[in-house]
Amino acid sequence: MRDYIEQINREIEPLRNQIINHKVYSAIKNLEDLRVFMQYHVYAVWDFMSLLKALQNNLTCTTVPWYPKGSADTRYLINEIVVGEESDIDQEGNRISHFELYLKAMEQAGADTSQITSFLENLLNTGDLEKSFALANTPLAAANFVGFTFDVINSNKAYLQAAIFTFGREDLIPNMFMSIINDINEESPENISIFKYYLERHIEVDGDHHSHLALQMTESLCGTNEQHWQKAQDAIVASLQRRIELWDGAYEEIMAKKEVLVEI
């Protein structure tokens, strides 16, 4: 199975480099730029939680009556990740999901949360993803990103869900971005301390412990099935391409706002 993992890593390395070195990071110069970035990124934070719950539904028994489902090792892996993502701790030690923590970070930074909130309210009421995007005026890049994730979720194929969860959803936060955030935090910690904590927590938990658990889960689900590994690789590549497009969208909006300020 390690040969399959190495093949995937070779295939996606150029895409990972594009994400790490994306121009959106260097475009973020101040709090206003960061607000725009967050308004795009929050969609990825939310649909990550949806992908996680799809995996839990597929790999464990979440209905009554309970019955043993799948491998106990796989059940442990996904449940361990769910606990960390759905009920982590904030800066004061209070239990909170990573998505709710991100919303708090947006509110503190003064970023507009009305769009993502409207999207979720409409989705809850209608169950229609496309209609909810339209009603909330979701940016096209964010809608495409979430739409692809839900295509994989709706495939009901746990090995594909695990693959993009493991390889395609890692945020790959570059040191340059952390340096920018630290600089903004020094200027206005009252606006960005929660977001800084979120990133640090993400690197600590998601980038280390959870990534190892997720890799074990993907290996277990794909096993020695060569067709599963090939389809998983294709899905991972597509997922990373959507991430690049999401960052492209954020970059274009950041730069458009800068041009407006210059004209004024």
What labels would you give this structure?
single chain, 264 residues, mainly alpha, two-stranded antiparallel ribbon, 12 helices, 2 strands, globular
Strand content: under 5%
Tertiary shape: globular
Largest β sheet strand count, sense and barrel closure: 2 strands, antiparallel
The chain-level structural class is mainly alpha
Rg calculated over all Cα atoms? 19 Å
Helix content: over 70%
Give average pLDDT, whole number.
Answer: 91
Indicate the topology:
Elements: H1 2-20, H2 23-27, H3 31-59, H4 72-86, E1 88-89, E2 95-96, H5 98-109, H6 114-126, H7 129-136, H8 140-155, H9 158-168, H10 175-187, H11 189-222, H12 226-263
Antiparallel strand pairs: 1-2
Helix pairs in contact: 1-12, 3-4, 3-5, 3-8, 3-9, 3-12, 4-11, 5-11, 6-7, 8-9, 8-12, 9-11, 9-12, 10-11
Q: What's the short story on this structure?
A:
It contains twelve helices and two strands. The longest helix has 38 residues.
Q: What do you see in this structure?
A:
This protein has 264 residues and is an all-alpha fold. It is built from twelve helices and two strands. A two-stranded antiparallel ribbon has the order 1-2. A hairpin with a 5-residue loop joins strand 1 and strand 2. The radius of gyration is 19 Å and the shape is globular. It starts with a helix and ends with a helix.
